[in-house]
Amino acid sequence: MKLLLLAIALFLSCCDNALALDLVPDAVLGTPVPERQSHPRTYVNSVEWAGSKLVCAGGAGFVRCYDPETRERLWFVSLASSVGSLAIDEAAGKVFVLEEGHRLNVYRLADGKPIAKYTDKDIGKRAGKAYVMSTAIACSPRGGRLLITDFGKDFNQPGSLGLLFNVDLRLTGRATVEGFVNKASFDSTGRYLVTVNSHSNNVRIWDCQANREIFKIGEDRDVIETDTEHLSDARFDGDRTLVVATNGAWLLGSTISIVDIHDDVEKASFMSQIHVALDVDFVHGHIAVGGSENDLAIHDMSGKLLALKKNGALQRIEAVRFSPDGKRIAIGSADGTARTFLLKAE
Hints:
There is one protein chain. The chain is mainly β. 6% of the residues lie in helices and 53% in strands. The protein is built from two helices and 28 strands. The strands form seven sheets. A four-stranded antiparallel β-sheet has the order 1-28-27-26, with no helix packed on it. A four-stranded antiparallel β-sheet has the order 2-3-4-5, with no helix packed on it. A four-stranded antiparallel β-sheet has the order 6-7-8-9. A hairpin with a 4-residue loop joins β16 and β17 (212-217). The relative contact order is 0.15.
């Protein structure tokens, strides 16, 4: 019943033409690949802002840094295997790239020059145990903390470790995650960490300062309805709330839930298009959802649709990120490009 009501609300919101924001096409970064030639090796599956610069990665193993204002490619790195995850510590001037071949590469943000490379064995030495790097890494927004997650023995193994390092790869803490973590991010302060395991359908929040888990969704902690859906992504909005995306049946799209992690209650929920990528601008209270139908939607925290760009990319959207000032949004597309849009009031 809840999903039906949310679906009706989604339909009505899409019928409302009075949208508050307009997504104005800005820059196309890279050369689009025709759909018939598209392949996971061409996808841009990670985009991250570093001030006014945009770093994107993915596909057959590439990292590119652009200046969206001038459309200039500032530097390019070619890798041996596909990129699983990308993270940036702007304060330290470092870009961390995790290859699916279980290599962590560190580059200078300024020019893309290599700084260091780490294998599973190198990380295992620092952890004091055998370690197999997963596909999720994350940097705290203010710098100083880097998370690297462990594959574990199987996708649902409890007790796998998420290792917390400083930016020089010195171990500073451990977070017990669960099996294969496919998404991870910090809150704005860098104290709290959220991990998402779509396979065992749980979301966990870790207090990095106290070194303990403080919140969980999934299994016996169903703050939101997960019986007919699977948890796919989660990002913080401020220090009290978490924005969680769950994908259901393809006709029903994605449910976005706003959860108060301190009061342990769902404050609001709404439906959006089929979800592939999620980001939150907590300063302006905006939620971006990138869809598998090439659509890009912006909602407010109540679920009201603020902007909708149909066919914003030639192919499906793999990643979305708000710029630090909230005035732009970047997407990574399956057509091999990164694209930026300006958010303007109608």
